[in-house]
Every structure is written in structure tokens, then in C-alpha cells.
Amino acid sequence: MKFSSISLSSSANISMLASLLISISSRGGIGMPLTSAFTLQASNIAKRSVSSTVTTTATATTTATQWNLAAEGGGGGGSGGRTSNAVSDKDLLSKTTTNDGNGNGSDGKKKKKKQKQKKLETNPPKGTRDFYPEDMRQRTWLFDQWREVAKTYGFSEYDAPVLEAESLYTRKAGEEVTEQLYNFVDKGDRNVALRPEMTPSLARMVMAKKGGLGLPFKWFSIPQCWRYERMTRGRRREHYQWNMDIWGVEGVETEAELLAAMVDFFERVGLSAEDVGIKVNSRMVIGEVLSELGIPEDKFAATCVLVDKLEKVPIDAIQGDLEELGLDRSVVEKLLQVLTNKSIDAIAEVLGEESEAVLQLSQLLNLCKAYGIEEWIIFDASVVRGLAYYTGIVFEAFDRRGELRAIAGGGRYDKLLETFGGQPTPAAGFGFGDAVIIELLKERDILPSFENTGVDSVVFAMNGQEDLYESAIEIATKLRKGGQNVDIVLQNKKPKWVFKHADRIKSRHVVIIAPDEHANGEVSIKNLELGEQTTVKIDDIEEWARSH
Ligand code: HAM
């Protein structure tokens, strides 16, 4: 059936058509060539009743002429008979007069008139951020530092989708991170989630290659992660997280290399061991105590998560969790007693000199000495970290003044791939969020200024009787070829405005094309940093750009 042959004379027909098109368009009609999309929609009119369920905003129109108008007038990409949902929605509201979009029927128009138009909420969703250009420069600067360090240590960058199958995160150890999932059912009835962290995606990617990646490897990534957190200073509902991971090495050489890279970053941004420390422990301490007490291994991960919770809540608050886990309170009390020890020697006294945990920790501290980072590292048996998959060494970077939440955290997770049904593969890494570090740098007053837009020259045609704009284009092009970042003034502006603008964007020069100089084949260049003005031949401008 062709669109033009449909009769849409009655209002009932129009709203019915709208309802039908809604459910069709929400099932992937977007981007379909217009005529075939409509044929499908029209043929469904006969098959469906008026009461068909409406789940999204409407998409319909009344006549072929109007439809074509909608398609043509759709602007951005609306050619060739295609139109976007947004365009059609707008059209529907203005062209179908019998339904106000809220199911109010024929008197909807009157009600609509009375309704005050609701103002757009300009804040981004709670816990998320907009990045205006200055914020973006700050973010890019931070990412650049992370990328530089990663490159220096031989890591390769990777990425994965922000949307993953929910099952990638539904571990049953009672972790906060799984309780904070942004999860939903998509249009294909799949349970999906926005990634709260990168490690499970990395494990999925490794598993997908079925051992074909070649171990060991060092990879890094800077994903945006989503957690439905209670917001506190430095904790938000989305954050960017620098991830550094090494797969395929069993020894603590891995952890030492990771810690050295982390310290390298801190030093690069101007922090010292007086500002930041990195607490190090091994979950094997817990493992060994549990095995001494005869607790089965399958309770290890959940016990670690519980012990981590005890940093924030008293033991009475986790009584229910303990019972669910079938763990005696005395076991946790014994663990806590061991974990209050502040030196490896003290742990060795409890676990014995031959304890694997003790040997590993001692070796790690020796390697840290070899890297020259020992003043940053503090052994602290109470550090457990809240993620279930860590199996060995765990660590956490913290603000020595104790005012901020953890700056970064990581550890060894040798069994994660197994939990997904893969081959046992040793791995360790860390995640380093963007929020706390920026707070810390601000607090220490060592965060660079990001006011500077990076423009080297503002080019400005001082139009009098003569239109010099084309010459301005020619000069801007030469400057750009000479390697400069150039902002050409696009409107006819007064010099006062141009200099104010140049100052606001922190341009270093203003290049003025004025009638007299131009007649001599020259331009005037004002150096705003030195307050000096010079004249340069237009023929030499590219050369000048290279040296300024
Ligand atoms: P995590 O300890 O959950 O570990 O997070 C690592 C870091 O991400 C935290 O120390 C913090 O800097 C930052 N972070 C976490 N949640 C938030 C939040 N809501 N707002 C701001 N920053 C946050 C992991 O995610 C592991 N996957 C890290 C890892 C990689 N382990 C091995 N490889």
C-alpha cells in the first residue's frame, strides 16, 4: 500500500495511526527508507487494534505532502526520504491536533495552551559532569599524563564498550560495586549494564581470543565507569579510571612494576611521598589464617569483601552477612586481630617465616627499593580492597593528610578468568580515578591553569574602505601551515574587541591586517606577552610562524 492512498480523514484514524507508528518506530524503524517504512506501518494498521500499547513518543503525520515535508525539512541528514525520530515527533505534535501526546484526546489542545512550558533542566543527571572546554582541557591534560606514563612502561592502549552484559558483573560476594550497577533491560530483552569498572571487560576480551593474545602483555585504558554511588567528595556516579594491567606473570615483579608506574605519575604531576602513600598488603594473609582455622576456600572471596566492609561499619552491622556466609564471628575477630599488625615481621610471627604471604610481601618491598620508590610504600595488613576477585597482593594509594578517599586501588586477580569459565591466567593491575587526584592537586595548589586555549595567534582584518578578509584568510592559512594554532576573527569587529578576545583566550599574538601595511605587503604583529609590536612581510609569515 502506498502512503498517499491512505485515508486519514477522522481524528480516530490519526491517533490510531500515531499509536501504531509509535510501537513500530520503537522497534527499529529509524533509518529505514521512508517509503518502505511507511508501507510497513500502513499495512499494520489493519492488523492492530487501537488499544495497542504505546511505549514511546509518537511518530506520525497526516498527509503525504506533510510527510514529505517532514522528510525534506528534517535538516541534518534528512535527504533521500529518511527522517529521524526527533523530526517526526516534532511534526506529529504540530500536525496532529487531536492528541496532545499525553493521551488527552480532542481537548488536549486547550489543556496544552494552559500548561506552562516546562523549562529544560540544565544540570546534567545527578552525579555526572558536563565538560566545558576548560574542563575538557584539564581532562585531556590528565589523560595525557596517564598515557605518557603508560607508554614509558611499555603498555598498549585498548578499549571496550561502556555497555556490557549484566552477567559480567553479577558476582555473588556482596560487593558494593555489584549493588551499585546501572542496569536495565534493553529493547531486545537483554539484561545489560553500564560498566562500573574495566577489569571484567578486559577479562572478557582476553577470553575471546582463546589464548591467542600471547602472554605476558601490558595493557592500559581510560574508560568512563558508572556506579550508582552515594555521592561524597571525590565519588560520583560516573568517573574516568586509568587502568593499568599486566597479564601472564605470576611473580610480584608485576606488582612492583605497576607500583613504580603509579609513583611515576604522582611525581610527574608534582606530588611527593609526603603527599601520597601506597598501602600494600596481600590477601594471602587472610587465606592463610582461614585455612589454619579450617574454613573452606570457597568462602575466601566473600570473607575478604566482608573484612573490607569492616573499615566502614562495626562488626555488629555485618552479623547478618556473617550468618549468610556461615562464618563464625570468632573467625572474623581472629582475622581482624591478625590484620591489625603493622609490620611484615609481626605477620611473620603469626603465620610463620615460611608463609607464602610473608615471602611475597618481603620480595615486593625489596623490588620497590630497587625501583627507588620505597618511601612511597607502606605495609598495612588492614588493606583488603572491596572487590571479590583479588587473590594476592592488594594496594591502595592514599592522601597522607587523610582528607580524601582512596586515590587509586588495585591488586592481583589470578582467578578472574576461571570464574568466567576460562583458563587460569595470572593477572594484576590497578584502577586510578580522575576525581580524587584532581581534588588533591587543587588542594596542594599544583594543578596547572587551563585557561589557555592553545591559540598562538588571532588574525584580524582591519576593514576600512577595503575588504581585507580574504587576505586575512591567506595569512591565517600560512600561519597554520607554519605550525601555529590560529583563530581568525570571523566578524567585522573593532580592535578593542579583538584584543579583549585575544586576552580572554590567552593568545600569544594578534596579527593585524591593516590597509596601509597590507598595501606594502606587510602585517603588524603584536606580541601580547611582551607588549611589543613588529611588522612582518606577508611573504615571510610562514617562516615567522615556525619560529614563534
Ligand atoms: P576500585 O578500587 O573499585 O577498583 O576503583 C579504583 C579507583 O577508581 C578508586 O580508587 C577511585 O580512584 C576510582 N573510583 C572508583 N569509584 C569511583 C567513583 N564512584 N567516583 C570516582 N572515582 C571512583 C577497580 O575498579 C578495579 N577494577 C581496578 C583494577 C584494575 N584492578 C585491577 N585492575
UniProtKB/TrEMBL annotation:
<dbReference type="Pfam" id="PF03129">
    <property type="entry name" value="HGTP_anticodon"/>
</dbReference>
<dbReference type="Pfam" id="PF13393">
    <property type="entry name" value="tRNA-synt_His"/>
</dbReference>
<keyword id="KW-0067">ATP-binding</keyword>
<dbReference type="InterPro" id="IPR015807">
    <property type="entry name" value="His-tRNA-ligase"/>
</dbReference>
<keyword id="KW-0547">Nucleotide-binding</keyword>
<keyword id="KW-0436">Ligase</keyword>
<dbReference type="GO" id="GO:0006427">
    <property type="term" value="P:histidyl-tRNA aminoacylation"/>
</dbReference>
<keyword id="KW-0030">Aminoacyl-tRNA synthetase</keyword>
<dbReference type="InterPro" id="IPR036621">
    <property type="entry name" value="Anticodon-bd_dom_sf"/>
</dbReference>
<dbReference type="InterPro" id="IPR006195">
    <property type="entry name" value="aa-tRNA-synth_II"/>
</dbReference>
<dbReference type="InterPro" id="IPR004516">
    <property type="entry name" value="HisRS/HisZ"/>
</dbReference>
<keyword id="KW-0648">Protein biosynthesis</keyword>
<dbReference type="InterPro" id="IPR045864">
    <property type="entry name" value="aa-tRNA-synth_II/BPL/LPL"/>
</dbReference>
<feature type="region of interest" description="Disordered">
    <location>
        <begin position="67"/>
        <end position="133"/>
    </location>
</feature>
<protein>
    <recommendedName>
        <fullName>histidine--tRNA ligase</fullName>
        <ecNumber>6.1.1.21</ecNumber>
    </recommendedName>
</protein>
<dbReference type="InterPro" id="IPR004154">
    <property type="entry name" value="Anticodon-bd"/>
</dbReference>
<dbReference type="GO" id="GO:0005524">
    <property type="term" value="F:ATP binding"/>
</dbReference>
<comment type="similarity">
    <text>Belongs to the class-II aminoacyl-tRNA synthetase family.</text>
</comment>
<dbReference type="GO" id="GO:0005737">
    <property type="term" value="C:cytoplasm"/>
</dbReference>
<dbReference type="InterPro" id="IPR041715">
    <property type="entry name" value="HisRS-like_core"/>
</dbReference>
<dbReference type="GO" id="GO:0004821">
    <property type="term" value="F:histidine-tRNA ligase activity"/>
</dbReference>
<feature type="compositionally biased region" description="Gly residues">
    <location>
        <begin position="72"/>
        <end position="81"/>
    </location>
</feature>
<feature type="domain" description="Aminoacyl-transfer RNA synthetases class-II family profile">
    <location>
        <begin position="127"/>
        <end position="448"/>
    </location>
</feature>
